[in-house]
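ok here's Extracellular solute-binding protein, seq below lol
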Amino acid sequence: MTKPRRGDNVEGPTPLVRRTDLPEEGPMRTPSPRRRAAAGLTAAALLLAACSARTTDPDSSTADVSTATTVTMRVWDQSAATAYAESFDALTASHPDVRVKVEVVPRGDYDARAAEDLAAGTMSDVFWADPALTAEDEAADRLVDVGKLLGDEEDGWEPAVTGLFATDGTVWGVPQQWQAPALYYDAALTGPAGVDPARLTWAPGGGEGDALADAARALTSDGAGRHPGDPGFDAGAAATFGINAGPHLLDVVAPFLAANGARLLADGRFAFATPEGAEAVQYLVDLVRTGAAPPVGGAPALDLFRQGRLALLQASSADLPALTERAADLRVAPMIAGPQGRAGVLDAVAAVGNADSKHPGAVETVLEWLGTAEGQAALASRGLGVPAAVAAQDAYVKRWERRGVDVRPVLTAAREPVLALPAGPHAGAATAAVEQALARVFRGELPVAEGLREAQDAGNTALDGK
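and the structure came out like this:
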């Protein structure tokens, strides 16, 4: 199976995307550098953030400690470490000669510590990585070639997610779990308005095929029950908003760009300042301008949704735990379709092997286990992210079903064609620079076309480390 290179588009009917975030929305995940910048360095991981370095030791194992080989694994999330301890107990039961100790390093310190420890030769045998790390030029000198090591094992992984950790045909990580944006909606608001979020579409300028603009207006009302466009509508006193829009590059803007046929990147550089890009962003700006979307800089959309004041929320699957307090009315739909279809925006974490490990045989055993449904079952049963092992995804779905939420629409994101997103050591700074410029557009300080050029230039300058 040929996997996509990072930075290439996956061939398919729709030129779409991966990855997302909610910069203003607050601490719901622990993003990779791109997401961390987008979330103001306050998010909790792809899962839920850890606060201090800890070590989880599978003491319940029956293995003979004196003869077993101990493999160390580093992650940035304590919830995941607890799940891995359970998983590795099962591994040791079938491979008593291998034990695994899991170390947790806080996400804020993780990348710097990883660089230091890799350079010093003191890095863990196996460790978590995001796509930015595996995209770096030094990956071949530091990481185990997983594709060569495990061969056909990757056929059981979500192909689009595996592609995030591949360069030039080489797979550098065993994907563990992923997240993608989805359209959450409050059925208590959409039902009475007669809006079916799963059938929403948008078109530039509200043209033929557009249903979102009217739906957003119908779902927005001020204290007097007036809607955008009605005489006397007071946007400043809105009781409910239709949908969130704004400069959130990876949760909102990138999906709209791609759904209109615009690229986010070309040859590793931002390239969205095009007529198609301007149409997509203008549509989002108009939602804010008419009052159908919350103003930029106002109350976070996540808070508005939880308060019952926002009907449609474009957010990541990683935000699901924060939304379950509204489980009675919470529903999930795929992202809104545009002229070119829907955008699948993926973020993921992989387990990578340290090429300098003194225990290569045991590392191979651990990596192989982590790529199986059994190895990811403990993560899946806790709902800590969509498992990359396809056979483990049913456990994730059932976990959320028990909470009253059907998350199957999230899984469709991985089957969409993929548009390249920024990678490398400056990806986070580049995302932040783009969003800062886009914020000026959404506040009405810059015309859309001019603002897109400024955002594109700022992002590319940051990608260069300047």
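fwiw The domain at 33-178+349-405 is CATH 3.40.190.10 (D-Maltodextrin-Binding Protein; domain 2). kinda neat tbh
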